[in-house]
Specification:
Porin; signal; mainly beta; DUF3575 domain-containing protein; about 60% strand
């Protein structure tokens, strides 16, 4: 009984947990729509990408501005001529128009006014269940609505990707993207 009374007293005088700190981990989600061009195909391709990850603690630059970063998994589905032209030219295969990608990626934003968006990652490209290529990609853009305190922000920018077709020649893809970021 004495232990129960002591526990009750300790719980009543203990400080309560405050609101979550700025460094607390959060679920991060991003969706992205992009148009890409390959140097070997005159027909562009479109892509829908979904990112799901967890935020890391903010890192501060020399001006004491926070850079927010998240690590996670990105799944993307692409349709069109950019990937098909690259696969056909590099590997000689007659593949369809729909490809899917699985990447490990890091994305975030920061800088003056939290306006710079960045994402980089790497992974594989598949056609159906056939492994077609290894890839590395980078995106740089602008965060829209960065001054608001809401978690949802718009993003627009440009992207570059190196597609290393297995048994073929690595070829670059370039494109533009727009999407939403929940950070």
């Amino acid at each position: 009984m004495l232990v129960l009374a002591a526990l009750t007293v300790l719980l009543t005088i203990a400080p309560s947990a405050g609101p979550p700190s700025e460094g607390a981990r959060k679920l991060v989600f991003a969706n992205r729509y992009s148009v890409q061009w390959s140097i070997v195909s005159g027909v562009p391709g479109g892509e829908l990408g979904l990112f799901l990850g967890s935020s890391l603690r903010p890192r501060f630059d020399r001006h004491n501005r926070p850079w927010k970063t998240a690590l996670g998994y990105e799944f993307a589905v692409s349709v069109g001529g950019a990937d098909r032209g690259t696969a056909f030219f590099s590997w000689g295969g007659n593949y369809g128009l729909v490809y899917h990608r699985h990447h490990v990626a890091a994305l975030g934003y920061g800088g003056p006014g939290d306006r710079l968006f960045y994402q980089f990652g790497g992974g594989v490209m598949l056609w159906r269940s056939t492994l077609v290529a290894l890839e590395a990609e980078v995106r740089l853009g602008v965060v829209l609505g960065a001054r608001r305190q809401e978690r949802v922000k718009g993003i627009v920018g440009g992207e570059a990707r190196i597609v290393g077709i297995l048994g073929g020649v690595p070829l670059p893809h370039f494109g533009v993207f727009a999407g939403l970021l929940l950070f």
